[in-house]
Amino acid sequence: MLFNSFSFLLFFPLVILLFYLIRQSSYPKLVLITASVFFILYSSPFSLLIISVISILNYFIGIQIDKKENPDKIQIYFILGIFINISNLFFFKYFNFFISNINNLSDVLGLIQKLPQLNLILPLGISFYTFSALSYLIDVKLENISAERNLTSFVSYIFFFPKLLAGPIERAQSFLPQINEAKGISTSNFSEGAKLIIWGLFQKLVVADRIAIYVNSVDPHYHSGKTILLSSVLYTFQVYADFSGYTDIARGLAKTLGFNLMENFKRPLFSVSITEFWRRWHISLSSWVNEYIYNPLTLQLRDYGKKGIILALFISFVIVGIWHGATWTFVLFGIIQGIIISIELLSLKWRRKIFKKTPSYLTIILGLLFSFSTITLSLILFRASSIEQASDIIKMIFNPVGKIYYGSAAFILYSLFGILIILLRDIFVEFKGHDIFIIPSRFFIIRSFLYGVLLILIMLVGVFDGSQFIYFQF
């Protein structure tokens, strides 16, 4: 069930109504679980089975780890929990990729026998809830949190439908207390949540899906390098608007029910380096990798100085790449990010010396251009079916011959208009610290007037084809 579908438009108001009417004791958690079960069941009964098994196993393993009786026994349970979560993710998401590469190696070695691939269904949100479960077990093991004894609370944490399909990847230490203290719906939360939902829908329906019409129509076999360049630039805005839009809708849905999901984007297109970009883009993933992979690795490799840090960076970003998908294009995506950030780290002192002699505005402009260009080229790997195809596309971009295809005049007008609004809002939040869509006034209608305008724009210009959010495939 997609957030931008008619079925969800019927589903969520019923959830709000039930959540509003049932406010006593543990009932709100039961409403959340029921709503989440229906949400998953509507899309994939098989996914409900998998996530249920994983949730129950993590619940009981977490309690065993938290008993603190026998260190050896605790370690065994901890390893078992990590193994179960990673094995589940590997089997459904990476098994066929692994088998495919084994078979390719067999061809190179001249072996006739091939291993069969399985016709697997990727469970909904598996990359996101797996990382939530892993962080929960690690935090219990490190005694950052106590194991959750209430099964309905723990299941609500894993199942929570607004964040299930594409995050944010919430940590138990910040979200479980909210589950246990659920108090129902308030006017202020409902208002704030509705605004987030409207803004998210604008990004998705007016900007991302509008750009997608053009990007999907561009074929490297039939269009010029100039057209490929334009579509690549627009694809960067599409991915940003699509994923940021999803996150804002998810945060808005959660907020209307009284829950706070973490901010997943902080104006990443204003980054002046790739290092800064990953502090602003998909924050729940980058911070997860930083806390549970990069920091422990740098601690283990501290005797190797900068070499240890570089190795930790590479491992961390290869994992980021693989997390996105089971293809070599995503592995290469992670490697490229690791290389660039390593170069930025090693050249930091040298760059600071240059920056002192360079006008600040020029430094910012060059940094913005470098960051945007690098991410735009990197995202080609998201769409390419192979590294070879990505290489061919990049060659075409750097050899921009032929005429440029712009699509229809309506596309140009609506897309540029949507991108401009997103950039203007980001500029005001970044540099002024306030939302340009909120008019200062003691009257609610006046304060929310521009959000009403956004809603009208969504109805008039939005693309209502029920298209899937890009990050659902990850």
Structure explained in plain terms:
The protein is mainly alpha-helical and 474 residues long. It folds into two domains: 6-184, no CATH class; 189-397, no CATH class. The chain contains 21 helices and no strands. The protein has helices at 6-21, 27-43, 45-66, 71-109, 126-141, 151-159, 161-164, 172-180, 187-217, 225-256, 274-280, 283-300, 306-324, 328-346, 348-356, 360-378, 380-383, 387-397, 409-431, 444-447, 449-461. Helix 9 (187-217) packs antiparallel against helix 10 (225-256) and helix 10 crosses helix 16 (360-378). The mean pLDDT is 88.
Q: Kindly state the percentage of residues in helix.
A: over 70%
What is the CA-based Rg, rounded?
Answer: 24 Å
- What string, H for helix and E for strand, traces the elements in order? HHHHHHHHHHHHHHHHHHHHH
Number of continuous helical runs: 21
Q: Quick check: average pLDDT?
A: 88
Question: Multimeric state of these chains?
Answer: single chain
Distance between the termini: 16 Å
Q: What share of the residues does DSSP label as strand, in percent?
A: under 5%
pLDDT below 50 for ≥5 consecutive residues: which ranges?
Answer: none
- Largest sheet, if any? none
Extended strand count: 0
| Helix/strand class | mainly alpha
When the domains are counted, the total is 2
Shape, principal axes of CA atoms: globular
